[in-house]
Write a structure and sequence with these properties.
about 280 residues; alpha/beta; Rossmann fold; 5-stranded parallel beta sheet; 12 helices
Length: about 280
């Protein structure tokens, strides 16, 4: 019994020491061991931190934009495997109020990630995590160890691929983008988007829409054309940012920019002065 008691006491002491160290040091990391944990880390950094004047919401397409290219005036809240609806829901429900929210339209075929939203804003966990840093998902010991090893910079989720690898992936993506989104599903996404944009505007946040460049041969496929038309119809007077890549767009798989092009695309945001915040 003494051995068990001593082991439990030692474990409690280690846990308390870890929690105190995290509370004092409060390290900020940009990447976790998995995509899901990285998404939680990015979301928690935003919810419990102070947003920059401009916040970007979107999918893994926007996630590839390097922070160094965007500059200090941007917080990249893009969610890998998700879309702008999730990031926009997080932005309008978080305490911080940015001046502008840049909304990627590319991947609006799916609904917002309700599981991630529940995990983030469920009470009393939200309040407890705000005050006790070690309770946050991104501060699990494995995530902290990984963050210490990799540093604070949020890296691109995948490296550039070879030409032979690209060809097959682009062909596969072309086939996917030829499949239209069911009209009723797209109508629901637009209703979600209108509601979230209205909430953002009520908080004084200026929405700015943008489309991430994809492989030119795929940009007129049915799915991107359908989404593009639906967003323009839903927001006929919206402010738009034209994301450009001088020299032409090249992607890894049809939709994710290669690193050099992602860096150039990021400059479109950094240099953008339109759609002034309210």
């Amino acid at each position: 019994m003494a051995l068990i008691r001593n082991t439990l006491v030692s474990a409690l002491i280690l846990m308390a020491a870890y929690a105190i160290a995290i509370q004092i040091l409060h390290p900020v990391f940009g990447k976790a061991p998995s995509v899901a944990l990285t998404n939680r880390l990015v979301v928690e950094n935003y919810v419990y931190g102070a947003p920059a004047r401009n916040v970007m919401v979107g999918s893994s397409l926007s996630q590839r934009l390097p922070n160094t290219g965007l500059g200090e005036d941007f917080t990249n809240l893009a969610i890998s495997g998700g879309n702008a609806l999730t990031g926009l829901a997080i932005a309008v429900r978080s305490p911080g109020i940015p001046g502008r929210v840049f909304i990627e339209i590319n991947r609006l075929s799916d609904a917002a990630d309700e599981m991630l939203l529940h995990q983030t804003f469920d009470q009393p966990a939200l309040t407890l995590r705000r005050h006790i840093v070690a309770l946050r998902k991104s501060y699990q010991p494995l995530s902290v160890l990984y963050g210490v090893m990799r540093g604070s910079e949020r890296e691109a989720p995948e490296p550039d691929l070879s030409e032979s690898q690209r060809a097959g992936l682009i062909a596969d993506m072309a086939a996917k983008l030829k499949l239209p989104i069911p009209a009723d599903a797209l109508a629901r996404r637009m209703a979600e988007l209108r509601d979230l944009v209205a909430q953002a505007e009520l908080r004084g946040i200026k929405p700015v829409f943008f489309e991430m460049p994809i492989e030119p041969a795929l940009s007129q496929n049915p799915q991107p054309v359908q989404i593009r038309a639906a967003v323009h119809a839903a927001f006929p007077k919206a402010c738009w940012l034209d994301v450009t890549v001088p020299g032409g767009v090249r992607t890894n798989d049809g939709i994710h920019l290669r690193m050099a092009d992602a860096t150039q695309a990021a400059r479109s945001f950094r240099d953008f002065s339109g759609c002034a915040a309210r």
